[in-house]
Design a protein that fits this description.
The complex is a heterodimer of chains A (100) and B (1000).
Chain A lengths: L1 E4 L3 E4 L4 E5 L12 H9 L7 E7 L7 E7 L5 E6 H4 L8 H6 L1
Antiparallel strand pairs in A: 1-2, 3-4, 4-5, 5-6
Chain B lengths: L13 E10 L2 E7 L3 H7 L6 E2 L6 E2 L12 E4 L6 E5 L9 E4 L14 H4 L8 H5 L7 H12 L14 E13 L3 H12 L4 E4 L17 H15 L3 E4 L2 E7 L3 E7 L14 E13 L3 E3 L12 E3 H9 L8 E6 L3 H11 L3 E6 L6 H9 L3 E4 L1 E7 L6 E8 L4 E10 L2 E5 L2 E3 L2 H4 L6 E3 L4 E3 L7 E3 L9 H18 L41 E3 L4 E2 H9 L5 H8 L12 H12 L3 H4 L13 H5 L11 E2 L3 H6 L3 E5 L2 E6 L7 H14 L1 E5 L4 E6 L3 H8 L11 E8 L5 E11 L2 E6 L4 H15 L6 E4 L4 E7 L3 H8 L15 E6 L2 E6 L8 E7 L3 H12 L4 E3 L2 H11 L37 H4 L4 E8 L11 E4 L10 E9 L4 E9 L1 H5 L3 E6 L4 E8 L9 H4 L1
Helix pairs in contact in B: 5-6, 5-11, 7-8, 12-14, 18-23, 21-22
Classes of the chains: A alpha+beta (100), B alpha+beta (1000).
């Protein structure tokens, strides 16, 4: 497999380390809801087809990437710096506060 | 002449360059250019091995990589290689080979008795027979069965040869060097693309090499090779098999660099792994001839028709004097004619009633008798075919008559049609498609960046193959960004005759009622016959994948190159389905067996993985340290004095540390700089305890959890300034912690302004422990006030020693008054030396990891043995450490009932009732006096002799922990050895539980 790192260009996947599902968003640190954390830690969709994953360019520039990849064909649709694409969760209660 | 069955000046071998070799201890002569198989045939040897299950005599069946029978053991001693294909082994002077799977000899093999009981050894025999009477019976039987089964024997000596891995990049990779492959390389080469051509055999030319020497195609071949060799952008790789196709244009190749020599030259590798990254690929992998099952179709002297032709034309060998050629297609006519031309008597048996008239006429004028509408229903002879039983045959119904003629022969050639080599296409996930006209699977639409050409697509004329190859090569080059070929293809000299009559598929010759029933083999290498497929069908197997696993058809080292399609067709016939409905096979890498050597490459011994040395490594070795591997690190294990063993040394070192002081290399601890305005918030999130109140100049012990709430790692982190922290981790988890922190910052908490940097290799770490450590450090680092009030426990100071920056931490892993010194790696040895020299006046000793472990166990500190990925904070007695005022990684999930359960195994100390009795790590803890069954109440995790207590002690985890077992007896059991050590459960803090020494 070949991954095109935004910093280094096309590289062999052996330079990279996968670090799991990037389609889930980590709950806010102040979120104490058990179900939210349980789902985040244990429930994985494991899709057949398009999937977003975190990859670390361990033996390259050291950047963290989000790679969108087809889990069947290994076709790669997109590679971005994680920092540019991850979004932060809202603080717990923010929604409720807004609703008020 | 090299061999009694050699055609004078025949073939493409080098006459005059003879090579002497031995087979089963007897010496023979062959020629340069021979394979081991052709050299054996040149000496009249057909019987070369015994079959896997029935120990039937077997001969040479093919002339290439598809060989199912002629597996031999090569060479002796450390270079011994089992299961080599005699048909692909290049002959060299001094080669030694032996037959396999026979005892006491190839001619007389006791186990051939299995053949008499073959109706018992049918499909699933082992599974059906060895099932009772106990639950674990199969495991017991298997042990014995495995000994009787198996082919060659591997050597147990280390491999003396070198292997290497290289990477190559190209625009167009061409696999195969027949007319299609060469033309593809020519087109891409003329278009200016960077081309690699891989050919598994030593000579380029593929099928053209099987034509008689002096054929018109020879001129085409030499002109083409001449041009290719001149093209600077084309690299030709003979002796190189492309065995794996992977994502995004990655292909794996194996080059046999020195397998054709007695041994590699000095500094030469034996084999080379080539990983190719290519833009486009042209597969011109050709087709393999397939057998037709008939009675005793495995006898020596029976071979594929194309193989017989190759032996005659390429190797100048007569594989027999009197041949019968049995076919269902036109291709075998050329074999018959070439055999006849070489002086072999030939009779041709064509299963088709409607034989090709023109070819029949040519045969007649060459005095070859052609029988049509006939089939060979059985072969006679045991060590060598003696005659063929021929019957009338109706290809439409598959019915055959009584034997109508018995043809004497010592060579029986078979052609059941051709199977395109679709492996590298199938490996990319493309399902082959059945072509009814050719009765074969074609590769289908090429997957990803592939192009297909030649006989792989069913183009069986040389000119047709060349044209399809050239077109594929031109297209590939263009798609890879090159231009157009500068010149068109010339095909003068190549034959363009296509088949006159279509092939009639035949998957089995069922004998007529009066004909003797004999085993009809489908998979020679695994001894699977038509009857085994029938039995599997009767027993309800419908799926081809199940059929394969039940009968083991196609699962031998040849991966069913000659048998898969036939097995599939038989299954289709039995179930009344079409072949495509029945299924297909998925090929996986490797195409051919690949040696472990070539997969391993240079990564053996010290090159297996990087060795990490601390800056004090050389000093340690010079001063007599015994070293030990800790992960990738090498650490000082102990420093023996006067012939001490490890036990004597660590007991002395441990005692000395507690009495005066000692010094240990702790460089391997993970070290991470945490910097930025949000560093305190970050630490507050990753550690379970609070960090916001830690002042600069102070250190704190911290524990991290995983997201699931179990303990991840621990260590001490110091605050050097408002925005700068220095974190330490355990040696084992250093990389994992660094990665995890990086991920949290870059992928989760992108709003935190923090940067982490691994500095494990940048700093040397030295721990000085013991009552005299304060005086020693005060002497060396005079700028710092080491008085207890001025520099308290968990204090941090920075200074310089002769211009070298030094950080001093007052932390302790031993329970003694202790300090850790960190300095940039380059200064490590100088600082260590300074401390060592000054230490002479303070009773300083050196200590290694063994004493380090003894000290921490005495103090009751847990380490990697206890933080084993299954323990919670409460299990380790740290429940109260978790802050209730903040959230941290794992803070929600650790609240789960199962993790909070008081019955979990918890951290305790263990004292053997007999203080002299040694505890063993890993021992199971069972109730005192039994029962000693099951998984027990817990286990012993760490053990040592404690000089401070004068007894053996241990740490462990036990259900309910101290609250349930304190003061009680349990038995530490080591069931493999039958050891039972009664011990008392105590607090893990054996030494100075109040901490007066480390704090004082």
């Amino acid at each position: 497999m070949r991954i095109t790192c935004p910093c280094c260009g096309e590289r062999d996947y052996g330079e990279f380390t996968i670090y799991g599902d990037a389609s889930r968003r980590r709950p806010h640190i102040e979120d104490t809801d058990f179900e939210t954390w349980y789902n985040y830690v244990y429930i994985r969709p494991n899709p057949k087809g398009r999937h977003k994953e975190f990859w670390h360019h361990t033996r390259g520039c050291g950047q963290w990437l989000v790679v969108e990849r087809d889990t069947v064909t290994h076709e790669i649709y997109d590679v971005s710096l994680a920092r540019d694409v991850v979004t932060l969760p809202e603080a717990p209660g923010a929604e409720a506060a807004e609703a008020k | 002449m090299a061999g009694s069955h050699r055609i004078p000046n025949g073939g493409r071998v080098t006459h005059g360059a003879s090579a002497s070799f031995t087979f089963d201890g007897k010496t023979y002569q062959g020629l340069q250019g021979d394979t081991l198989a052709s050299a054996l045939l040149a000496n009249g040897i057909h019987l070369v091995g015994r079959s896997f299950k029935y120990h039937r005599p077997r001969g040479i069946y093919a002339a290439g990589a598809e060989e199912p029978n002629a597996l031999v053991g090569l060479r002796e001693g450390a270079r011994a290689e089992p299961n080599a294909l005699a048909t692909t082994v290049e002959l060299y002077d001094g080669l030694t080979a032996k037959s396999q799977n026979n005892w006491p000899s190839l001619q007389f093999d006791v186990a051939e008795v299995n053949n008499l009981f073959q109706r018992f050894f049918s499909a699933g025999f082992y599974y059906k027979t060895f099932i009772g009477p106990f639950e674990k019976s199969w495991m017991w039987y298997e042990h014995i069965i495995r000994k009787a089964a198996g082919m060659g024997e591997a050597t147990t000596e280390p491999d003396p040869d070198h292997y290497e891995k290289v990477y190559k990049f190209c625009d167009v990779l061409v696999v195969g060097s027949g007319p299609a492959g060469l033309s593809a390389a020519l087109a891409a080469g003329r278009a200016g693309a960077r081309v690699l051509l891989a050919e598994q055999e030593p000579d380029l030319g593929g099928a053209l090499l099987s034509a008689p020497k002096g054929s018109s195609s020879d001129q085409w071949l030499s002109a083409t090779l001449e041009e290719l060799e001149k093209l600077q952008n084309v690299e030709l790789l003979p002796r190189t098999v492309a065995w794996g196709a992977y994502d995004h244009g990655t292909y794996t190749l194996m080059e046999k660099v020195a397998d054709h020599k007695l041994q590699p030259d000095e500094h030469e590798v034996r084999q080379r792994s080539i990983v190719v990254q290519t833009g486009r690929v042209v597969l011109a992998t050709g087709a393999l001839e397939r057998p037709i099952p008939f009675g005793n179709n495995d006898r020596p002297g029976i071979m594929l028709a194309g193989a017989a032709r190759t032996y005659v034309n390429r190797y100048g060998v007569l594989p027999g004097k009197q041949a019968v050629v049995f076919t269902n297609n036109d291709s075998a006519y050329q074999s018959a004619l070439d055999l006849k031309e070489a002086g072999i008597d030939v009779t041709l048996v064509d299963a088709r009633k409607d034989a090709p008239a023109q070819l029949v006429a040519v045969c007649k004028s060459a005095s070859i008798e052609v029988m049509s509408g006939r089939a060979v229903v059985g072969a006679n002879g045991r060590m060598r075919v003696r005659s063929a039983d021929v019957a009338e045959f109706d290809a439409k119904t598959g019915a055959s008559s009584d034997v109508v003629r018995q043809l004497a022969c010592d060579l029986l050639c078979v052609s059941g049609g051709w199977n395109p080599v679709v492996h590298l296409s199938s490996q990319r996930g493309r399902k082959p498609e059945f072509d009814a006209k050719l009765a074969a699977f074609l590769p289908g639409t090429p997957p990803d960046n592939q192009h297909h050409a030649g006989a792989m697509l069913g183009a069986f004329s040389d000119a047709g193959a060349a044209q399809s190859g050239f077109a594929a090569g031109a297209e590939a080059a263009q798609l890879a960004g090159a231009g157009e070929p500068s010149r068109a293809l010339a095909t003068e000299g190549l034959t363009s005759a296509d088949w006159e009559k279509p092939l009639v598929p035949i998957w089995d010759i069922k004998p007529g009622e009066q004909v003797k029933k004999r085993k009809r083999f489908v998979d020679f290498q695994h001894d699977v016959g038509v009857s085994d497929v029938e039995l599997a069908h009767i027993e309800g197997y419908v799926s081809v994948e199940h059929l394969k696993r039940y009968t083991t058809l196609g699962m031998a080292a040849d991966q069913g190159k000659t048998s898969n399609i036939t097995g599939l067709a038989l299954m289709a016939e039995l179930t009344g389905r079409s072949i495509p409905e029945t299924g297909t096979t998925t090929f996986r890498p490797p195409y051919n067996p690949v040696s472990f050597g070539v997969i391993t490459g240079q990564e053996t011994g010290l090159h297996f993985r990087p060795l990490r040395r601390t800056p004090l490594h050389d000093w340690n070795l010079k001063n007599g340290a015994e070293m030990i591997n800790v992960g990738a690190w090498q650490r000082a294990w102990y420093y023996p004095q006067g012939g001490e063993d490890v036990d004597a040394a660590y007991i002395r070192e441990t005692t000395q540390v507690r009495k005066t002081c000692g010094m240990v290399d702790v460089t391997t601890l993970g070290k991470i700089e945490v910097q930025g305005p949000d560093a305190a918030e970050f630490l507050n999130r990753v550690y379970v305890n609070g960090w916001k109140l830690l002042k600069p100049g102070r250190a704190r012990y911290g524990v991290m959890l995983r997201d699931d709430g179990l303990v991840f790692d621990d260590g001490t982190t110091s605050r050097l300034s408002d925005t700068h922290y220095f974190m330490t981790t355990t040696t084992a988890e250093a990389a994992a912690v660094m990665t995890h922190l990086g991920w949290l910052l870059e992928c989760c908490w992108t709003d935190l302004k923090v940067h982490v940097t691994s500095v494990t290799d940048q700093y040397a770490g030295i721990a000085v422990a013991g009552p005299n450590s304060r005086a020693l450090l005060q002497e060396v680092f005079a700028d710092i006030d080491f008085a207890n009030e001025a520099f308290p426990f968990m204090g941090v100071r920075e200074t310089e020693y002769k211009g070298m920056p030094v950080r001093v931490f007052r932390i302790s892993f031993s329970g003694e008054l202790a300090y850790e010194v960190a300095t940039p790696s380059g200064f490590g040895e100088a600082i260590w030396e300074a401390l060592y020299e000054a230490g002479k006046g303070h009773g300083l000793c050196l200590y290694g990891t063994e004493a380090l472990g003894a000290l921490r166990i005495e103090k009751g500190h847990f380490a990697g043995n206890e933080i084993d990925g299954r323990t919670s904070l409460e299990d380790l007695g740290l429940g109260k450490m978790a802050s209730t005022k903040k959230q941290f990684v794992g803070s929600v999930m650790r609240q789960r009932e199962g993790i909070q359960d008081e019955n979990r195994q918890r951290f305790v100390g263990l004292e053997p009732v007999n203080p002299e009795e040694r505890l063993r790590g890993g021992a199971l803890l069972h109730p005192h006096n039994g029962p000693h069954a099951g998984h027990g109440l817990g286990h012993v995790s760490s053990t040592t002799y404690s000089p401070a207590l004068g007894r053996f002690i241990g740490l462990g985890l036990i259900e309910g922990g101290l609250e349930r077992y304190e003061g009680q007896l349990v038995d530490a059991c080591y069931p493999l050895k039958g050891w039972v050590v009664p011990c008392k459960v105590v607090s893990p803090h054996f030494y100075d539980p109040a901490g007066e020494k480390q704090n004082g």
